[in-house]
């Protein structure tokens, strides 16, 4: 039986990954700072509660061996700069210090498009990153640390830089659930001008590529992960309003962040070349499945 440790399996992506791994007969362990919400509780998952930024407690809590590690951990509220840095970067270093001598098969680090900063799109993995936010900086420092470990010690790490991921069971503080909630309850809700262009990836596609990555020979690589389709945020809002025939988006009420760019989307050549993968779920299908869940 394959053994996988998912850092952050109590979160949106981690829950879906754990659920799929159970179906494939993996032995699944979750490591997170808090217990799972009732809606994300999986009976066959072993839950370990620990803050990865506390190295001493981490060493005491992890007592089993694993084949695979997937790091989805990190502080969600990026306005708290100290906790964002501690959880995303120092937490990552603690994990690698613990596992570098454990003979694991793969360490998948979930990176972010925010690592690129204000670099033009399509963003390529070989571009020189210029992160601006503390979250982007912490993720980039993690990437640099893992690449260094791979070069020096052949630590089997791969970095997947994700773009916008959405789907059922996502927290309601994210863009698409916020829009769905506003329309479903026929409320007025503030939003940006909606002029941003983004790449939105359905959760099922992400889980598929994560499973492919577990056994692919991609150690020491950075790989962008997205749908390959760019959509305007305003069009997403209009689609959801049209579905419900209700909801009143207040365009322009939320100002763009200083570091935010209008067009952000990836080059996916590495994903196709190294993993032989591309997204399958069209946005219209994915958004209907997401709406159905929240209904």
Would you write up a description of this structure?
By secondary structure, this protein is α/β, with parallel strands linked by helices. The chain folds into two domains: 3-164 and 201-225, NAD(P)-binding Rossmann-like Domain (Rossmann fold); 167-200 and 228-265 and 280-294, UDP-galactose 4-epimerase, domain 1, CATH 3.90.25.10. The protein is 38% helix and 20% strand. The chain is built from nine helices and 13 strands. The chain has helices at 12-23, 55-61, 81-99, 134-153, 175-184, 203-215, 233-244, 269-274, 283-294; strands spanning 3-7, 27-32, 46-49, 68-71, 106-112, 157-162, 164-166, 188-191, 197-202, 222-225, 230-232, 248-251, 263-264. Strands 3-2-1-4-5-6-10 form a seven-stranded parallel sheet, sandwiched between helices. Strands 7, 9, 11 and 13 form a four-stranded mixed sheet that branches. α3 links the parallel β4 and β5. The longest helix has 20 residues, at 134-153. The radius of gyration is 19 Å and the shape is globular. The two termini are 37 Å apart.
Topology (elements, then pairings):
Elements: E1 3-7, H1 12-23, E2 27-32, E3 46-49, H2 55-61, E4 68-71, H3 81-99, E5 106-112, H4 134-153, E6 157-162, E7 164-166, H5 175-184, E8 188-191, E9 197-202, H6 203-215, E10 222-225, E11 230-232, H7 233-244, E12 248-251, E13 263-264, H8 269-274, H9 283-294
């Amino acid at each position: 039986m394959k053994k996988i440790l998912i850092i952050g399996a109590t979160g949106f992506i981690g829950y879906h990954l754990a659920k799929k791994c159970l179906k494939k007969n993996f032995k699944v362990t979750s490591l997170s700072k808090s217990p799972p919400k009732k809606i994300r509780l999986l009976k066959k998952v072993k839950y370990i509660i620990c803050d990865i930024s506390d190295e001493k407690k981490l060493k005491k809590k992890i007592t089993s061996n694993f084949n695979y590690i997937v790091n989805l951990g990190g502080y969600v509220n990026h306005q708290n700069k100290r906790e964002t840095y501690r959880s995303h970067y120092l937490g990552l270093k603690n994990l690698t210090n613990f596992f570098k001598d454990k003979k694991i098969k793969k360490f998948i680090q979930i990176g972010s498009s925010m690592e690129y900063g204000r670099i033009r799109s399509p963003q390529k993995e070989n571009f020189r990153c210029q992160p601006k936010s503390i979250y982007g900086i912490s993720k980039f420092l993690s990437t640099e640390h893992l690449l260094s470990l791979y070069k020096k010690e052949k630590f089997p790490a791969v970095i997947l830089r994700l773009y916008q991921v959405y789907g059922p069971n996502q927290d309601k503080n994210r863009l698409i659930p916020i829009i769905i909630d506003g329309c479903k309850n026929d409320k007025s809700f503030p939003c940006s001008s909606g002029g941003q262009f983004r790449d939105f990836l359905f959760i099922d596609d992400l889980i598929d590529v994560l499973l492919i990555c577990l056994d692919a020979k991609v150690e020491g690589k950075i790989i962008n992960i997205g749908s390959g389709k760019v959509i305007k945020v305003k069009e997403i809002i209009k689609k959801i309003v049209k579905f419900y025939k209700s909801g009143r988006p207040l365009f322009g009420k939320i100002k763009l962040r200083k570091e935010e760019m209008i067009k952000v989307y990836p080059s996916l050549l590495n994903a196709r070349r190294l993993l032989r993968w591309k997204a399958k779920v069209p946005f219209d299908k994915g958004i209907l499945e997401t709406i159905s869940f929240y209904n």
